[in-house]
Amino acid sequence: MSGSLSSVDPQIADLIKAEERRQTDTVKLIASENYVSKAVLEATGTVLTNKYSEGYPGKRYYEGQQVIDQIETLAIERAKSLFGVNHANVQPYSGSPANLAIYMAFLQPGDTVMGMGLPFGGHLTHGWSVSATGKWFNPVRYGVRKDTGRVDLDEVREIALRERPKLIFCGGTAIPRTIDFPAFAEIAREVGAVLAADIAHIAGLVAGGAHPSPVGHADVISTTTHKTLRGPRGAMLMATSDEHAAALNKAVFPGLQGGPHNHTTAAIAVALGEAATEEFKAYAHQVVANARALAEELNSRGFDLVSGGTDNHLILMDLTPKGVGGKPAAQALDRAGLETNYNSVPFDTRKPFDPSGIRLGTAGVTSRGMGTDEMRQIGVWIDQVVTALAKGEDEAEHVVARVQGEVRELTSRFPAPGL
Ligand code: DSN
């Protein structure tokens, strides 16, 4: 019981080391990932994992909460102060359970929910067909315009007026443009729906002032804590007014979850503390500047960017004009040390497991201290690998090998936090 991981389970210890090496040597361009700080990492690996705490601070179903109550209260207070909300629940295990809690709080099975369709940039839990939210509720969807790649709010209003959803989601997983929270709020008010802003991707940008805040517009805000917010894997639900606090709390526990993961709660508190600093504000703005620089480089090299560019941390590209599928491109880029994910693009004619696009994000590379010069270099490498792949696998492998060496040289100059 007292041996170190490497002596008790060398197999797992070696695999963790291998993953650490992999993360060190690659350029993380996955839009939903980041590198947490050493302090956040430290908080996740603590004795807090030993404790059960069903309930909320001051009202638990287990004794021994003298310390846990203080930790959870700190996390809640930091969330409230950072985002300017009256209520925060830091217990959802991740983004999907957080969103399910919104259904539990406001809807009955069979009620209508309106969200952005998954291939247009929404999330599974916004009512997509394969998700419980699409099976147990009545989902209606909006997308983006074919000519602009952007949400058409007139269309959103039209669908809302026709379908009368009880819940509307705005936000998603592959939206490169600013979300117009006031416009969504107006539509929700007009049809009497609850507006949920899913800011999982952009929470760090909102906290750092690099994206408008949904506070004062959305009735409820859900977010994961591990994307641009740079915390541990977890989630939060927030509300501007006290009106929805009790319903949201009841939905998370006992509605959907048991004991909160206290080690995660502590790490969320640490991340929220970090996100309240001037340094984090500068980080959030640099994430956006970096995405813009990368988008410009890719645009100048003839890549087809959905909506033509980006306002945030995220770029979605359709590789069809390059003659390459998203999946082989992501795989070749991964071999070169550039980690991305293949992704459907709006109006994709290919299947989700072999789609036309790739998605890129700059949260991770910015945490490593990279700036716009490095983004332009990354754009050059992406172009070289994709162009070579279009000519054939053999051609691509030469280029991949060369780029991999150059990527290693770059990553060695920008150590990742926490590694
Ligand atoms: N899988 C997350 C993302 O990559 O955006 C969303 O669930």
From TrEMBL:
Pathway: Amino-acid biosynthesis; glycine biosynthesis; glycine from L-serine: step 1/1; One-carbon metabolism; tetrahydrofolate interconversion
Subcellular location: Cytoplasm
Subunit-level organization: Homodimer.
GO cellular component, one term: cytosol
Binding annotation for (6S)-5,6,7,8-tetrahydrofolate: 118, 122-124, 243
Record site: Plays an important role in substrate specificity: 226
Enzymatic class: transferase
Name recorded for this polypeptide: Serine hydroxymethyltransferase
Family: Belongs to the SHMT family.
N6-(pyridoxal phosphate)lysine found at: 227
Catalytic function, reaction form: (6R)-5,10-methylene-5,6,7,8-tetrahydrofolate + glycine + H2O = (6S)-5,6,7,8-tetrahydrofolate + L-serine
Cross-referenced NCBIfam families: PRK00011.1
Family matches, as InterPro entries: PyrdxlP-dep_Trfase (IPR015424), PyrdxlP-dep_Trfase_major (IPR015421), PyrdxlP-dep_Trfase_small (IPR015422), Ser_HO-MeTrfase (IPR001085), Ser_HO-MeTrfase-like (IPR049943), Ser_HO-MeTrfase_PLP_BS (IPR019798), SHMT-like_dom (IPR039429)
Taxonomic lineage: Bacteria, Bacillati, Actinomycetota, Actinomycetes, Streptosporangiales
Molecular function terms, GO-annotated: glycine hydroxymethyltransferase activity; methyltransferase activity; protein homodimerization activity; pyridoxal phosphate binding
Domain (Serine hydroxymethyltransferase-like): residue spans on this chain: 5-382
